[in-house]
Write a structure and sequence with these properties.
Order of helices and strands: HHHHHHHHHHHHH
Distance between the termini: 45 Å
Largest sheet: none
Oligomer: single chain
Helix content: over 70%
Length: 282
């Protein structure tokens, strides 16, 4: 009995481990988050059923009363705006995921592993972008079904989709900050709804800004969401350029969106990393 017990470790030795780099660790975290979504498919409702509902409601309810939509049909005007709103809500997904992991002690388990702390955030960010990309595809297919079309070149169309993801990466840092600061998922939900809904509606997402009062129009047109929506409209050929009376960002929407994305990252990333480290003791 003793000899067998002593020989067991030699026969059934520990599995070999191999060192991994940050990229490999981050990809493992991405797969972990995607598997979690696969096992709970109801988590996809915000990027499957909700996009279809939003597109149909706005297209057939608001669209019935809006006749002037920047030189395009309202449905073509609408799709870029809803795509912009969808990618902004990526911050919501990230914040909820981080807070949930912290609450459940998952982050504490990760801290006990020989992995980079940054891989957890990178993995969460990439998986959230993948999550939101599903919504982008669903919205595009729904839009095609109701009459939306891409009228620009293939290169411009691809650039528009890439621009959405770049902006999503910038807004993710805001989600990381909120997820690291808030103490519960319920608090995250209240905060994100309070912040994100006004941002996505006080813009040119669902209606042109021209009829707004001057001060409100200035705020709306300097809103980063407006630049993103205008950039997609121009790249997809869904309407002409912004009117002369529009604010500067709408006259150069692609460049403005890139600058806004860099600014969001530069402003929120340091605070988000500091808040996450303080919250997790890392």
């Amino acid at each position: 009995m003793t000899a067998t017990a002593l020989q067991a470790p030699a026969k059934y030795g520990r599995p070999q481990t191999h060192p991994t780099n940050v990229a490999q660790q981050s990809w493992i975290m991405v797969k972990r988050n995607l598997i979690h979504t696969k096992r709970m498919p109801e988590m996809l409702s915000d990027v499957t059923t909700q996009p279809i509902m939003f597109v149909l409601l706005f297209a057939f309810v608001l669209g019935a009363s809006i006749t002037n939509a920047g030189g395009a049909s309202y449905r073509e005007f609408l799709l870029p705006g809803i795509q912009a709103q969808n990618i902004v809500f990526t911050a919501f997904v990230v914040a909820s995921g981080i807070t949930s992991d912290i609450e459940k002690g998952v982050i504490d388990r990760f801290r006990s592993l020989p992995i980079s702390r940054s891989s957890v955030l990178i993995g969460r960010s990439i998986s959230s972008l993948i999550h939101s990309s599903i919504g982008i595809v669903v919205m595009a297919l729904t839009g095609l079904a109701i009459g939306w079309r891409i009228r620009g070149s293939i290169a411009e169309a691809v650039l528009a989709f890439v621009l959405v993801l770049i902006f999503g990466f910038g807004i993710i840092w805001f989600g990381i900050l909120v997820g690291s600061v808030m103490r519960s998922v319920e608090a995250v939900n209240g905060t994100m709804f309070t912040v994100l809904f006004p941002i996505t509606f006080l813009a040119n997402t669902f209606a042109p800004t021209e009829p707004m009062s001057h001060w409100l129009r200035v705020i709306a047109e300097w809103n980063p969401v407006s630049s993103l929506a205008q950039a997609m409209r121009e790249l997809w050929g869904n309407g002409g350029p912004a009117p002369e009376s529009a604010q500067l960002p709408l006259h150069h929407p692609v460049l403005a969106t890139l600058l806004w994305s860099l600014a969001l990252t530069a402003v929120f990333a340091p605070f988000a990393l500091r808040a996450y480290a303080r919250r997790t003791g890392g």
